[in-house]
Specification:
The structure is a single chain. The protein is α/β, with parallel strands linked by helices and 289 residues long. The protein has a single domain, classed as 3-Layer(aba) Sandwich (UDP-N-acetylmuramoyl-L-alanine:D-glutamate ligase), CATH 3.40.1190.20. It is built from 8 helices and 10 strands. The chain has a 10-stranded mixed beta sheet with strand order 3-2-1-4-5-6-7-8-9-10, with helices on both faces. The protein is globular, with a radius of gyration of 17 Å. The structure holds adenosine-5'-diphosphate and the ligand Cc1ncc(COP(=O)(O)OP(=O)(O)O)c(N)n1. It catalyses: 4-amino-2-methyl-5-(phosphooxymethyl)pyrimidine + ATP = 4-amino-2-methyl-5-(diphosphooxymethyl)pyrimidine + ADP; 4-amino-5-hydroxymethyl-2-methylpyrimidine + ATP = 4-amino-2-methyl-5-(phosphooxymethyl)pyrimidine + ADP + H(+). One of its GO terms (cellular component) is cytosol. Its EC number is 2.7.1.49, 2.7.4.7.
Length: 289
């Protein structure tokens, strides 16, 4: 376990769906927290029957049980950071927003999960307005992939300029930092073999890139990235340190997964990859990790 400056154990909470296949959702988040030496607590919003081939069933947890889980964790465990993932529907969004407001925590990382890699919807189509109005104002860091940013902004993102415009529009909704993840496209990047994420803090654009790993074992990359950022914030890293460290951890976990063979579809990444703390980033620069 890693300690904070005041010698307390770093603690993080994930509010997300359960993935029975173990690669994404709550399971990915808790494995990531552990990899960073951060104690992990959880609030389950939905139970999915899922594996590397797709999503077979979804059961939404009743909203009173979601409220109670959050209250139980806030009353006793008192997390230093929170990751928010799958929220399923408008009622769950409103419930989570109400409890987050009550808790008044500043390190909330929001991954606006909409669709699983196999194409299964994880959020109802009528939820976009509630997500924008109720959850984004509470986010310290917002981490949409390109298709999610397109839904939230209602325009298509084909170039780095489009991505910058999306980041500017989403920042106006309240998050301190917006990251448009480049896992889905080589938008605006002269190196087609790189996976570049665009970070906007309201003043400058910073990008973080790694080599794009040619792998189908990428199930759970988005969940892992956002929970790694939350873990790093619980460890008192700056936001850019947290993003750079999380980005490199996800890359190493994708590379490490090449060694294993789990499931017949989109395999999970390897959360036992080691964590290297990345420091010294300056806003407004491009980093190749
Ligand atoms: N094949 C890949 N090689 C390297 N990095 C990747 C690859 N796929 C995704 N990433 C990185 O993983 C993180 C999650 O991105 P992404 O896969 O776009 O999220 P999501 O799972 O929400 O769609 C980002 O930092 C992205 O750049
Ligand atoms: C329960 C649950 N939550 C989130 C996701 C989506 O996870 P993500 O990291 O975006 O990975 P892919 O599904 O895109 O591989 C999920 N599948 N299940």
């Amino acid at each position: 376990m890693h300690l904070r400056a005041d010698h307390s154990v770093a603690r993080a909470l994930t509010i997300a769906g359960s993935d029975s296949g173990g690669g994404a959702g709550i399971q990915a988040d808790l494995k990531t927290f552990t990899a960073f030496g951060v104690f992990g607590a959880s609030c389950v919003t939905a139970v999915t029957a899922q594996n590397t081939r797709g999503v077979q069933a979804i059961h939404d947890v009743p909203t009173d049980v979601i409220s109670r889980q959050m209250q139980s964790v806030f009353e006793d465990i008192r997390p230093h950071s929170i990751k928010v993932g799958m929220l399923s529907n408008v009622a769950t969004i409103k419930t989570v927003a109400r409890e987050l407001q009550r808790a008044d925590l500043k390190n909330v990382v929001v991954d606006p999960v909409m669709v699983a890699k196999g194409g299964a919807p994880l959020l109802t189509a009528d939820s976009t307005d509630a997500l924008l109005a109720e959850i984004l104002p509470l986010a310290a860091v917002l981490t949409p992939n390109v298709p999610e940013a397109e839904v939230l902004c209602n325009f298509s993102i084909r170039t780095i300029e489009d991505a910058k415009e999306a980041a500017i529009q989403l920042k106006r909704r309240g998050p301190r930092i917006v990251i448009i993840k480049g896992g889905h496209a080589a938008w605006g990047d002269s190196r087609e073999d790189s996976a570049r994420d665009l970070v906007y803090d309201g003043r400058a654009f910073t990008t973080f890139a790694t080599r794009r790993v040619p792998s189908t074992k990428t199930h759970g990359t988005g969940c892992t990235f956002s929970s790694a950022i939350a873990a790093c914030l619980a460890l008192e890293m700056s936001e850019l340190e947290a993003i750079g460290t999380a980005k490199r951890y996800v890359y190493d976990a994708i590379v490490a997964a090449a060694q294993w063979d789990i499931g017949a579809g989109h395999g999970p990444i390897d959360h036992t990859a080691s964590v290297e703390w990345r420091r010294g980033f300056t806003a407004g620069k491009d980093y190749d990790l």
